[in-house]
Specification:
Layout lengths: L5 H19 L10 H7 L2 E8 L6 H14 L3 E8 L1 H11 L5 E5 L3 H6 L12 H5 L3 H5 L2 E2 L2 E2 L2 E4 L3 E6 H6 L9 H13 L7 E2 L6 H13 L5 E2 L2 E2 L4 H15 L12 H9 L5 E5 L1 H6 L11 E4 L11 E2 L3 E5 L6 H11 L2 H6 L15 H4 L3 H10 L3 E2 L7 H16 L5 H16 L2
Parallel strand pairs: 1-2, 1-3, 8-11, 13-15
Antiparallel strand pairs: 3-14, 4-5, 6-14, 7-11, 7-12, 9-10
Helix pairs in contact: 10-11, 10-18, 18-19
Family: Belongs to the bacterial solute-binding protein 1 family.
Pfam families: SBP_bac_1
Keywords: Signal, Transport
Length: about 425
């Protein structure tokens, strides 16, 4: 998303300057400076932590920081960038050192329990909430309160190779998992591609993301009212679908060792007809420097079932204020600047907006018409990973159990029964 604030900021700055000149015509002896005016001029320093990769680039954020400081000369911002893998630990260990923190959706409940986040419920108006996708907003909630502003908006989509589907005589893009399986069998039988589907099912967070998504489409969930509900029929059915797709040779068997970049590589090399991945893959799969399938890439909503037409895992992140911040008002002002429609409109090429209204703006839709149209529908079917303080431990065990089933070392029912027992006994406390 890219640039448009300078002119507005200059006008605001000019207005402030004129106000200052008018005040200076009054002699200090007869009109002493008010205490609050003096405080406004005090220099405030904010520390903010972001991640290095994905979504908005470091350059875009640094540019926004400079623009914010120019508009608010009494507020300085020091931005720190760390890899995603180090972000959570940096915040847990040094949360008090940062005023503004970029947090992933599954961390909200954990950070609230650790007393790290400031409640910002009253800072977001009803009108603003109505214009933000509910799935993105809900990721920043805990115990009915709001603890951050959604910022990075990302979900997974179904990517497909248009040329392969055409060769196989498949006229319609699959809208259900059953249709995806049927199309994959056709592609395999006609020897168009050996393993039509590729996934990121390595024993890592990527597997938790995909299982959350697939289980959600079958009507399943892992936690209800704070209690684990892992071994439900819906979740078992979802895992059985995943396991069978490997056994039937429709899913690339190496998927159990793949992360998202591996999926992109396989799809971009023309060795898969279908792939599930984040937004970023669309541009990269259409980049001649990165892909052999340029011009053949289609994107659609994640397939669903009779219970749910689609489900996709929330990969978004939000901006939160540390409860230990000495400058919460200034920190919120900075968050408002970064999450503003102006910023998100400007940088729509890098990450899609959190604001529904921007999807009807030609400046946004023009960046990638096909993606925008699909995302408007897909964002209505966002599911969040379990929003509990013990998510980290739960996800680790989930990855192990699901991976065992995918390797056919346990039945889906056995894998989830054992996981339920372990979570109840050792984790959900």
């Amino acid at each position: 998303m890219k640039k448009k604030l300078a002119a507005v900021l200059n006008v605001c700055a000019a207005a402030g300057l004129l106000a200052g000149c008018a005040a200076s015509t009054t002699p200090a002896a007869t009109a002493p400076e008010k205490k609050e005016d003096s405080q406004k001029k005090e220099s405030v320093s904010l520390n903010a932590i972001f991640m290095k990769q994905a979504g908005y680039s470091e350059e875009a954020i640094k540019e926004a920081v400079d623009a914010f400081i120019k508009a608010n000369p009494n507020i300085k911002v020091e931005a720190t960038f760390v890899p995603y893998e180090a972000l959570e630990q940096k915040i847990l260990v040094g949360g008090g050192s940062y005023d503004v923190m970029l947090i992933d959706a599954p961390w909200t409940a954990k950070f609230v329990k650790a007393n790290l986040l400031l409640d910002v419920t009253g800072k977001v108006s009803d009108a603003e909430r109505g214009d933000i996708f509910e799935g993105a907003l809900s990721a920043m909630r805990a115990d009915g309160k709001l603890y951050g502003m959604p910022w990075l908006n990302d979900v997974k989509y179904l990517f497909y190779n248009k040329e392969m589907l055409e060769k196989a005589g498949i006229a319609a893009v699959p809208k259900t998992w059953d249709e995806l399986i049927a199309a994959s069998k056709t592609l395999k039988e006609k020897q168009i591609v050996e393993h039509p589907i590729v996934w990121s099912w390595k024993q890592a967070e990527a597997l938790s993301v995909d299982f959350t998504m697939i289980a959600g489409s079958f009507g399943g969930e892992f936690v209800k009212d704070g209690k684990p509900t892992i071994q439900t029929p819906e979740n078992v059915e979802a895992l059985a679908f995943m396991q069978k797709s490997i056994k039937d040779g429709l899913t690339n068997p190496s998927s159990v060792e793949y992360l998202e970049e591996d999926v992109r590589g396989v799809f971009s090399s023309g060795k898969a007809a279908f792939a599930l991945n984040w937004t970023y893959m669309y541009d990269m799969a259409n980049d001649p420097k990165e892909s052999k399938v340029v011009g053949k890439v289609g994107i659609a909503a994640v397939p669903g079932t009779a219970k749910k037409p689609s489900a996709t895992t929330n990969g978004g992140m939000g901006l939160a204020i540390s409860k230990k911040s000495k400058h919460p008002d200034e920190a919120w002002k900075f968050i408002q600047f970064l999450s503003s429609k102006e910023f998100q409109k400007k940088h729509a090429q890098n990450a899609l907006p959190i604001w529904k209204s921007l999807f009807n703006d030609s400046a946004v839709s023009g960046t990638n018409p096909q993606l925008i149209e699909v995302s408007k529908k897909q964002y209505e079917h966002i599911v969040n990973r379990a929003q509990v303080p013990w998510y980290g431990q739960f996800s680790t065990e989930l990855q192990v159990s699901v991976h065992q089933a995918l390797l056919d070392k346990a039945t889906p029912q056995k894998a989830l029964d054992d996981l339920q027992a372990k979570v109840v006994k050792d984790i959900a406390k």
